[in-house]
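A note from the maintainers: we've had questions about how concatenated examples are separated. There is no special marker in the raw files; a new sequence line simply starts the next protein. For clarity in this README we add a label.
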Amino acid sequence: MTNTVKQASLYQIQSWMKTVLTERGDLKEKLETAAARDGLLIENVIKGTENISVHLRLDIYAAGYVMRLVECLKNEFPILSTFMGEAFFENFAKAYIVTVPSNNWSLYSLGKRFAEFLKNTQPQFQDIPEQMAFIALPAQIALLERARAEVLLARGIENTVRSPTLEIGVDLSFLQGEMMLQVPPCLQLLPLDYPILELVANIEKSHDLNKPLLNIPKSGESLLAITRVDYQVTTTELAYWQFSFLSQCTEPISVEQAINATALNCSMKTSKLIAKLFLWLPIAEISGFLVLQ
């Protein structure tokens, strides 16, 4: 490094490197942007040698930096990478890294907006349902894989004292009592436009897209509950009334209030909903969908 670099602030150098590594364009365009923004030239920051020029040295570093981030995305989205194919996935991953650069120091945040990016960049084939499905599925798979990653690291219920399971069918007093319900912090409710669980399971089992086992699902609402029980992430498809009931419980709520709100939202008689809950609430509690308070 030259004396100019020694006089530059650390923030200035970091900003220059970020511009060169993540801005769109070729190396010349990036360097021009960095010089205008941060007041540094490549010679002020990078030291060349007799064998490697400053431009080649920076180009190698920039390419390596992007590929390391691509590998991180592959590790976070292994099912998506298999579905899309490695080369195709890498192209989209590189475009995402440049278009939506992460501003967080943690690699955990890198893939947070990948599903959104895939959805926003997908072409439209409104007259051909099969093509529409194949184009839409990457964003759907990315949503599921990202949700699973967030559930894995979220605060769970493993180390908390859990209330006794409801003895549904024995005592009706819980409906009017003071007992409160709330979903655990690690639960995510994920609405999807395609039922992809079977497709994802087949990819996880085979890791070989050359086998004729991947039936592309037709468009249709799929409501998922993703949670963690005993450090194991689970994914369950829910009926609309179950999804609606859990949605009412994102904050502490009494059973009676949750029932009334769900019945209204689902246009269902309260008595019918109560009958369904008698059978399902114990399952929901054991499955880690609800915490009884």
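[label: protein 2]
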Amino acid sequence: MLSRIIAISCLIVYLFTTTELHQLLKIPVLIQHYQEHKEIDSAITFWEFMSMHYSQPDDHDADHEKDMKLPFKTDDGCMSFITAVYVTPSATTIPTEVIKPIYYSEKKEHFQKQVSLQSSFLASIWQPPRNC
């Protein structure tokens, strides 16, 4: 039971630090901002609100600062971290068979070589610097 809790905790920490999953924590801000728009225009639907904030170009209106606090509007500098997992040697099994490498007998070129013709004018631009 304890190992399951530790595994779930590690998975949650991993997902929230290496993905944009932490953006879901901003859902209350989304709901509050929708309610503010609903007070201004009672006829607006949630779909129209989402369309206005996510599918249209960003116009810098009066509530632009609040708009940028909505989920998935900005990236918060999400960084990946390397996690090391240590396994005891008794829990691992070492394979006894050797995997044979695969050799390809026929070599095919998939791209044709292109011959480029340089004009003397273009070639003269790329000359090394000279002493005057």
